[in-house]
TrEMBL record:
It comes from the Eukaryota. Residues 17-49 are annotated as: Disordered. Residues 17-28 have a biased composition (Basic and acidic residues). Belongs to the NDUFAF4 family. GO terms for cellular component: mitochondrion. This is NADH dehydrogenase [ubiquinone] 1 alpha subcomplex assembly factor 4. Binds calmodulin. Interacts with NDUFAF3.
Length: 172
């Protein structure tokens, strides 16, 4: 419905509006700058001669220039090559791991592997008097505030099994 109404307004008096636009005087183009109207044919021969002409003074100066280039000696990367300085991280061996080749062998100090995190969380949950935050921080080379945050915000899952006699069997 809305399309019909808009079409009526669009097509209203189209012919007279088009005729008025066609009969309107067109704007004149801006005048060109005099340098743009140069005769290229007349000046092209002068430009070509200027390009082809040799300047003896410039040639003598060019002959006096001498450039000597030497490549630096080639170094073999394997033998005593200097490496970029890099930050040496202290590594420690991991405490646990039961997956053989898939286990992480070394971890940076201040970090722990996932298996270690689960182990220390479980140890703290089972024996909180023995596995205190200070002991865990010393054992795994961690900062005390990080260990406190870890113990506060992460809790390992617990599995609870309900006895079978409490379940009611559905008889069909």
């Amino acid at each position: 419905m809305g399309g019909r109404v808009s079409r009526v307004f669009r097509t209203f008096n189209v012919e007279s509006r088009a005729q008025r636009e066609i009969s309107r005087e067109k704007p004149r183009a801006a005048p060109r700058h005099p340098s743009a109207r140069l005769d290229t044919a007349a000046h092209s021969s002068e430009i070509k001669e200027e390009i082809q002409r040799k300047d003896d003074r410039l040639l003598t100066l060019l002959k006096n220039v001498y450039v000597e280039s030497r490549d630096p000696p080639v170094r073999v990367k394997g033998e005593g090559s200097e490496q970029l300085p890099s930050k040496q991280e202290e590594k420690r061996l991991t405490k646990v791991g039961h997956f053989g080749a898939l286990d992480v062998k070394k971890v940076s100090k201040g970090k722990i592997s996932i298996v270690e995190a689960l182990t220390l969380l479980n140890n703290h949950k089972l024996h909180p008097q023995i596995w205190t935050a200070e002991k865990i921080a010393a054992e795994y080379s961690l900062e005390l505030k990080d260990v406190n945050s870890l113990l506060e915000f992460f809790v390992p899952f617990t599995i609870e099994e309900f006895p079978k006699e409490t379940k009611k069997a559905i008889k069909s």
